[in-house]
Amino acid sequence: MSSLQALCSGLPLRPLPENRGRQAGVPHAPVRTPSLSPAEKQLALRNALRYFPPDVQELLAPEFAQELQLYGHIYMYRFCPDIEMRAYSIEQYPCQTKAAAAIMHMIMNNLDPAVAQFPQELVTYGGNGQVFSNWAQFWLTMFYLSKMTEEQTLVMYSGHPLGLFPSSRSAPRLVITNGMVIPNYSSRTEYEKLFALGVTMYGQMTAGSYCYIGPQGIIHGTVLTVLNAARRYLGIEDLAGKVFVTSGLGGMSGAQAKAAVIVGCIGVIAEVDKAALEKRYKQGWLMEVTDSLDRCIQRLRVLQLGLQQALGWAGLPAALGLCVLSCFVNLAPLGEGTCLAPSGFSRPLLGAPILLLCPSREARKKKEVLSLGYHGNVVTLWERLVHELDTTGECLVDLGSDQTSCHNPFNGGYYPVQLSFTEAQNLMASNPAVFKDLVQESLRRQVSAINRLAEEKFFFWDYGNAFLLEAQRAGADVEKKGAGRTEFRYPSYVQHIMGDIFSQGFGPFRWVCTSGDPQDLAVTDELATSVLEEAIADGVRASVKLQYMDNIRWIREAAKHRLVVGSQARILYSDQKGRVAIAVAINQAIACRRIKAPVVLSRDHHDVSGTDSPFRETSNIYDGSAFCADMAVQNFVGDACRGATWVALHNGGGVGWGEVINGGFGLVLDGTPEAERRARLMLSWDVSNGVARRCWSGNQKAYEIICQTMQENSSLVVTLPHKVEDERVLQQALQL
């Protein structure tokens, strides 16, 4: 077992570590199919060997060539460290600067097997969101960070540590770019080749910027999305008795079962990957599994007798009004109709007692909370719901979405309904063209079922995973007549649900307590709640107050639901004023030792200013600039100029390679006045940039917020748009 000291000593070469190959019993990334020519294969091998001196190249070359042949990429499994990969306390890292130790803490969290989707392939989430391209890059990065001073900056080129360069104390300690491919060559086909060559990588959003905090982030986003969807589509604040159907229990989508419970609805989630559901079950996020689709639908229809007996049998109070079920179909190791017990139960729910748990038709009347899972393809679930509608006249679903990794549909992000999970993986590697055809047929079937349900009082939205974009490319009926390029038959969640929240400056602000102590996190929760409550007491707009109240509720629920996976982290949606105030409060708590170690501030790239993505974050930009990336690039540069500890700029993320430019940051609070100065300056820019852009595009709420911000800060001067009051001026000028 390696130590942190050994991990920071550079590539282990003498002796070389044992080649243990792929580890059994952990999930692995799908086989990639880059279709390299013989010359390109030689280039990929040469590129991998340049990390190593000539005396070991002869030994390493055959195994690297085998990896390329078997898996479509050279991961360098031999160099996967023999250490418990997790976020250690910042004091344990052998570094010269707190900033470097904080970055190490974040990197190791992204690769923690409890956090990462495919840890041995260095994938954190999203099916292909890489932290590094290979393990040699990991070792070198840790070595450089351990040596870095306050007058050096580490430069990262798509996972590759280019080196330490002289800089100043005010400069970022780390600058990351991922996937910065010339636009004409930023295609999926070209990406597969470039990744296989080891010269670029897909960092998703917070995977390649070292800022992922586990599924807590997407839980919070899903909670807010479903709450606001209910307000917009159903006209309600209370989701009790309402049914939400979606898919995915993987790296990001795994949050959905927990989110359904927090908002108080009935959630039905489909998942094809046994490993993904087992991971969520072991974490306690899934309380029960079954392998019968009929039983899953039955629970959506008929309340069985003996609920009081079932609750008493399970050791629960008879009056309990919470029933969280997670039922999965086609789970190979389980027998037909078998269920596993909820976490913490002394006995599995097998045989007759399982029939006593409450299904959602009656649960809708009783307004109970359920999280129902279906292990099988989501298309079969949608088609079965259509069958129930057509045969009984009853629509069993109110809200729907999709969280498959549709940004990567032909390499494991979406599995076609015609094949089993294993069959799909085999065909994906052996015949990519046929696999693609089946995926597109499956997408057409899925949309057809959703369209039928939408004829009733059912509302569907795209969750920013490129589902509708890929469905359109597959020929599915998603067209919205007379609409622009970014609009479909169903809206994206930004267009209808979250877009106005972004326009008000609210977005996914987060922090990580590098001590690793849950007590430090509890202190930050208390501080953040206090800051938001004080802001409400001081008086804010009604729309802002609503968001603050949602987030106060979220913080309280987060602690209760044990949402921390990996590092001691928290996320909430806040505006500029809230972010700055929370940062200042945390920094002061560090200064007076109420918090024991530095805290890293960050955010999801999916934010007010961080991402230009015409089919997601900027899909509600209607002045024609949705396809322009000035905002994200300016944000990256502006954060670097204003005090960020590290900055990152990525091609891809969310909706896929070539579809988005996005950036993020890390800012280390260490209790010093300098840290507070940086936080005030950088966080203000990080929000105002995006609000100003959204204002210029014509968004009225953004206009109001940026005007208010200018009144509060005389140094901020933003160009404001003038409306065309009379549309006839345009028509007459163009002689229409």
- The second-level CATH architecture of the largest domain is 3-Layer(aba) Sandwich
Largest sheet: 9 strands, mixed
Tell me the CATH superfamily of the largest domain.
Urocanase superfamily
> What share of residues are in beta strands?
5-15%
- Assign the CATH class of the largest domain: Alpha Beta
Global shape = globular
Oligomer: single chain
Please give the count of helices: 25
Structural domains: how many = 3
Domain Urocanase N-terminal: 85-211
GO molecular function: urocanate hydratase activity
Domain Urocanase Rossmann-like: 214-301, 361-497
Pfam families: Urocanase, Urocanase_C, Urocanase_N
Structure description:
InterPro entries: Urocanase (IPR055351), Urocanase-like (IPR023637), Urocanase_C (IPR035401), Urocanase_central_sf (IPR038364), Urocanase_CS (IPR023636), Urocanase_N (IPR035400), Urocanase_Rossmann-like (IPR035085), Urocanase_sf (IPR036190). Belongs to the urocanase family. The protein is an alpha/beta fold. The chain has three domains: 4-197, Urocanase superfamily (Urocanase fold, 3-Layer(aba) Sandwich); 215-302 and 362-474, Urocanase like domains (Rossmann fold); 497-727, Urocanase superfamily (Urocanase fold), CATH 3.40.1770.10. It is built from 25 helices and 18 strands. Helix 2 packs across helix 3 and helix 22 (630-641) packs antiparallel against helix 23.
